Hints:
The chain is α+β, with helices and mostly antiparallel strands. It has helices at residues 37-42, 50-58, 126-141, 180-188, 192-206, 217-239, 289-304, 312-337, 351-361, 366-372, 376-385, 391-405, 409-417, 427-437, 443-452, 463-466; strands at residues 18-20, 31-35, 69-71, 75-77, 80-82, 90-97, 103-109, 124-125, 148-160, 164-174, 241-242, 264-265. The longest helix has 26 residues, at 312-337.
Amino acid sequence: MIMWNINKKYQNLGTEFFSFVSPTPLMNNPSLIHINGELVKQLNLQNISAATWQNILSGVEQCAGYQSLSSIYMGHQFGVLVPRLGDGRAILIAEHESIDGVSWELQLKGAGATPYSRRGDGRAVLRSSIREYLVSHAMTKLNIPTTLALGLLVSDDKVVREEIESAAIVLRVAESFLRFGNFEYFAHHNKPQELVKLIKFTIQNYFTHIDINNANYIAQFLQEIVIRTARMVAGWQSVGFVHGVINTDNMSILGLTIDYGPYAFLDLYEPKHIFNHSDSEGRYTYANQPHIAWWNLYRLAEALTILDDVSEELLQPVLDSFAEYYNHEYQTIMWQKLGINDYQRVTDKNLFEDVLKFMQVNKLDWTYFWRKISSERGTQDLLAQYSNVKFDEIMGRIQSEQSLTIKSQDKIYQQMQKVNPAIILRSHLLHMAINKAKTGDYSEVDVLFKLINNPYEEFDGYEYYYQLPPMWASHLSLSCSS
Ligand code: AMP
Ligand code: MG
């Protein structure tokens, strides 16, 4: 019977990189709300019973053969250097290898204080845990690189935030939870040997095409992260995802979306809208995400320059290549959303910018617009709805550009429906699921999980979820507190 197949990779790095720490169990009526069956299968962990998962998630039961730990890192938070952070409420409970040879890290989020908790309690509330659990799956199904979530547990243990809330735990999964901040930490504290060890560890486990004997391997390492980050952020922009707190400690070295907090998906296309009210300057708006990603890469590159033979001149062209990689990824996805496969052959060069301007000026909903133009009926609906604002003119330009490469309109629509989701996790949908969950009713969590599992399909009977948000949704705001 296959259960844990422990392969200690990160742990073998040594205690310069982490501290051993045990979860503090949630004791008050812990209850498993949801488990991601598909992910359990992918990890070949089907033999673990629901009761055991509940014990693992609540922190009562350890994974056999693994001593749990929390990592040390630092970060630039809202642009400010913070020299010592670390997993303040995340505990790595297993490193497990699935049959296909992939090594996975399993991490509890909210399992109590660690040496890096500072003034925090090491806990997570139900609200933020539902949000992280659902969005991890949503992003997976939207083909955007992300950490995964295997299970969600709630308890009657109470934690104090702006109000008193229930403590919950998410079991997260990723090939690695390493962040830019892990590397910055060893640079800032002038520990080049540890920094090199961590870089080589990352290359040998995750960037295996890079040869550490090549004199240029550090630049190649940075290049890989630049490419992955560009791909991730382009994915975010395509679905209107706003992370909300892209500090360098929340930037994954593998280019995964990580540490979901006050995230939001755009409703109206307002690129400068501030969702996270802790971000008063609007550092982390939708419009700013590509620039901030690049700024964060810059901080990572700076950390690498403490090493012998790694100069700014060596890394500058690598950093500069971000714009090119990002633009290519972004243009590719965005033109595909418009039904155009090869953006380099487009004749109406301003079309795309004009569509965005049109959306902004006329306050169009991001997801709704793209999905509507992905079918004949939807296009007709929009034409009727926006007859007063020259929608026909912009639609005419879109269709004439589309027809230059693909002749069949049906085929164009089919392709567009594969890149323009019918559903994203709108804030009000999450809000409704959370409010119900607070009364002990998790049915909306189940519904949302089911719908986002197939974001490009529209299920009968769930029309409400595909429609525009109600008026009250525009008043929702999010905080960092979670
Ligand atoms: P974030 O920006 O939410 O990823 O968190 C920034 C830092 O604060 C990380 O080092 C977290 O581990 C830590 N942190 C956040 N919330 C808590 C908490 N409730 N208890 C302890 N540490 C926390
Ligand atoms: Mg974080």
